[in-house]
Design goal:
Elements lengths: L5 E2 L21 E4 L5 H11 L1 E5 L17 H10 L1 H6 L2 E4 L11 H9 L9 E8 L2 H10 L6 H4 L9 E2 L2 E9 L5 E2 L12 E8 L1 E8 L1 H6 L9 E6 L3 E4 L4 E7 L3 E12 L27 E4 L10 E2 L4 E5 L5 E5 L11 E2 L2 H5 L3
Parallel strand pairs: 1-2, 2-3, 16-19
Antiparallel strand pairs: 3-12, 4-5, 5-7, 6-14, 7-14, 8-13, 9-12, 9-14, 10-11, 10-13, 15-18, 17-18
Length: 351
């Protein structure tokens, strides 16, 4: 069931919007490009932690200057000029059917997808992070429709506080099949920023969102809300707090190219630290871990570094004989990202 998104009048305050639920409609605030003022977007985001801004399909009513959206040629250029940047945090959701073994390294798969003038036949789905290189970021942002969406840089009551990480997440894939191509399993992200905006540059990406218990406590109107299907087409921007929304994505069938770019945003004015994203699979639970159970031992994953959080779900414990293990501090559900507390002393304290 595709969701019916609530619309707002151009000058309406998003915080006054009422959420309506029914068997065939689900709550999310949608704004047109013309309605997406800074105040409207920030107020709506404060309420629901998810806002979809739909691009105008009519050039005469668009509020942003249109330019050709980047595609695979830009990604190939980045790979050619900055191969270490692309492969440093390269991850494959779905390998090409031919020509790339499951044991292939990130650099080998990146070369397979981006090292030639023609991409291999699909389906395949991959991502990487442009980070830790001013030259690569500058070249990449220069080819983008914008570095920051207009509604987050225009004058408004809260626009002056908004900051962004110096990194860009790139998600791209192709799906010639009739069936949808699935991304990562439903999960939440262990993040400390305000959320992420995702601009769809080419093709289509389908999101499925479901509120976490924490989000429902913050907004009781979300009680009883099931998974929501959100379709993002070229030019659309989805702002979402992926810590508070369970989420997964897919590329629909018969999609020659789906390309989207995301940046982390700090709405409270926090100065982002220097990014160092790894973008690897395996940091989230694929099954239930009861409280007190061993997630993995240091022998099993000696070099795995987990993100730190003030609301961590894991702790480091001595399991005897001087061996250390990461242990669930509470029941961990499938899809939750593993994290440890900000203080190592707290984790090592037992309990």
């Amino acid at each position: 069931v595709e969701i019916v998104l609530q619309r707002m009048a151009p000058r309406a305050q998003a915080s006054h919007a009422k959420i309506r639920t029914s068997p065939k409609s689900r709550p999310v605030i949608q704004l047109s490009e013309e309605e997406a003022t800074t105040d409207n977007v920030l107020a709506a985001y404060k309420d629901c932690q998810a806002v979809l801004v739909k691009a105008s399909r009519d050039a005469s009513t668009s509020t942003t200057k249109k330019r050709a959206a980047p595609g695979l040629p830009l990604l190939r250029c980045l790979h050619r000029r900055f191969p270490k940047v692309v492969t440093r945090a390269f991850h494959v959701e779905q390998l090409p059917a031919h020509g790339a073994a499951k044991s292939a390294s990130a650099s080998e798969v990146a070369a397979r997808l981006l090292g030639k003038a023609r991409a291999p036949p699909g389906p395949w789905y991959a991502s990487f992070v442009v980070q830790r290189s001013r030259a690569a970021l500058a070249e990449f942002f220069d080819a983008m429709p914008f570095r920051v969406p207009p509604f987050l840089r225009a004058r408004g009551s809260g626009a002056g506080k908004v900051k962004h990480s110096e990194a860009a997440w790139v998600f791209f894939g192709t799906n010639p099949r009739h069936a949808a191509l699935q991304g990562r399993a439903e999960h939440t992200d262990a993040i400390e920023h305000s959320g992420t905006w995702h601009v769809q540059l080419q093709g289509v990406k389908v999101w499925y969102l479901r509120p976490t218990a924490e989000l429902i406590r913050q907004n009781r109107a979300l009680r009883g809300v099931g998974p929501m299907r959100i379709v993002c087409r070229a030019g659309d921007v989805l702002c979402v707090n992926t810590r508070l929304w369970w989420h997964r994505t897919q590329i629909p069938g018969k999609c020659p190219l789906s390309l989207s770019v995301a940046r982390d945003m700090y709405l409270d004015g926090t100065t982002p630290c220097k990014p160092d994203f790894t973008n690897v699979r395996g940091h989230y639970a694929t099954r239930v871990f009861p409280k007190g159970s061993v997630v993995f031992t240091e022998d099993e994953a000696p070099e795995l570094a987990l993100p730190r959080s003030g609301d961590s779900n894991c702790g480091v414990r001595d399991v005897g004989g001087g061996a250390l293990a990461v242990v669930a501090k509470r029941r961990i559900r499938p899809g939750e990202w593993f994290s440890v507390s900000a203080s190592e002393d707290e984790d090592a304290g037992g309990g």
